From TrEMBL:
<dbReference type="InterPro" id="IPR025857">
    <property type="entry name" value="MacB_PCD"/>
</dbReference>
<feature type="domain" description="ABC3 transporter permease C-terminal">
    <location>
        <begin position="264"/>
        <end position="373"/>
    </location>
</feature>
<keyword id="KW-1003">Cell membrane</keyword>
<keyword id="KW-0472">Membrane</keyword>
<feature type="transmembrane region" description="Helical">
    <location>
        <begin position="259"/>
        <end position="277"/>
    </location>
</feature>
<dbReference type="InterPro" id="IPR051125">
    <property type="entry name" value="ABC-4/HrtB_transporter"/>
</dbReference>
<feature type="transmembrane region" description="Helical">
    <location>
        <begin position="347"/>
        <end position="368"/>
    </location>
</feature>
<dbReference type="GO" id="GO:0005886">
    <property type="term" value="C:plasma membrane"/>
</dbReference>
<dbReference type="Pfam" id="PF02687">
    <property type="entry name" value="FtsX"/>
</dbReference>
<feature type="domain" description="MacB-like periplasmic core">
    <location>
        <begin position="23"/>
        <end position="229"/>
    </location>
</feature>
<dbReference type="Pfam" id="PF12704">
    <property type="entry name" value="MacB_PCD"/>
</dbReference>
<keyword id="KW-0812">Transmembrane</keyword>
<protein>
    <submittedName>
        <fullName>ABC transporter permease</fullName>
    </submittedName>
</protein>
<keyword id="KW-1133">Transmembrane helix</keyword>
<feature type="transmembrane region" description="Helical">
    <location>
        <begin position="304"/>
        <end position="327"/>
    </location>
</feature>
<dbReference type="InterPro" id="IPR003838">
    <property type="entry name" value="ABC3_permease_C"/>
</dbReference>
Amino acid sequence: MKYFPLLWATLWRKKARTIFTLLSIVVAFLLYGMLQGVNAAFHLSIDNANVNRLIVTSKISLTEPLPISQQQQIASVPGVSGVAFAVWFGGYYQEPKNFLFATPVNIDDYLHVVPEAKIAPEQVEALKRTRTGLIVGATQMTKYGWKVGQRISLHSTIWVNKYDGTSDWPFDIVGTYTFSGDESQEQGAYFNYNYLDEARTFGGGTVGWWIVSVKDPHQSAQIAARIDKLFENSPDETKSQSEKEFTQGFMKQMGDINFIVQAILGAVFFTLLFLTGNTMMQSVRERIPELAVLKTLGFTDAKVTVLVLAESLLLCLIAAAVGLGLADLLFPMLKNTIGVVRLPSRVILSGASVAVVLALATGGLPALRARRLVIVDALAGR
């Protein structure tokens, strides 16, 4: 620490250059924090996928409906402990940007298979009693300021209500739910399947996919094969896979987020490597006589090398701390989009590691030049 004043003074030798370099690195790490945070949020649902569950969809496509009569057959497969279903409703509130993952379910079956969804027993009973009942995730309740007992209307992009000929479906909020371990799952809502099935103009007696809990996760592959075997060569063949595999496949439909993020950040930091490296080389070149004086005063080659690397490290760490700090402050603004409240700590730690690598890469050549400096030649201006 006794050399910190020296490092600080040399860092700000050219204030304008240092400020612009700092700003470039700050922007790079702000971008790093936001993009890697979004990437981590997308992978959070994959990491939280339950190993005891299978997702069974149509072999043709996720959008192809399956007959509800399959439930008893799936439930009879050895190793299956519970079966629930869900249907894609495609709902939004007031305008398309307010998407709400509203799912028609049989609430008892669903809670048995997905115990992470926590709903007060009296609210479960209220849903069963209320044909138009709706149980909304805690995140959405807060977002829109909804209250239990309030009536709202959701517009479906798929289903038409045959009673009024519109795609607007009225609901009465009878409760709210939380989802243990994954707040991003609290952006949805559950309502009665019978309400949808009785009022829709087509697709009666069908569901979107099956959610199957298994007794032994080590037997998941065998159980999935047995389920698919049941409906082999039938008009409604199925594709059964683990919840993790299903989630990964669903994410890939939106694009390879991880590749996109890595490609953008790779381009940014490749450019930054040259920018910061040039700054450090220029800084050392301007201070060659001063470094020669330090060596004359007894500073060893190793100590001079460490001083140059420390200057690069100080520059990168300060900028990275500011950039990642700004990302941490701004990240909660994406809560309503990706459901994650804070920037994951692993992103901050990986960002600090990247800052250290960047400092060593950009300070390496200038430090090597300072180490090989010959005092006589430096003082003579050669």
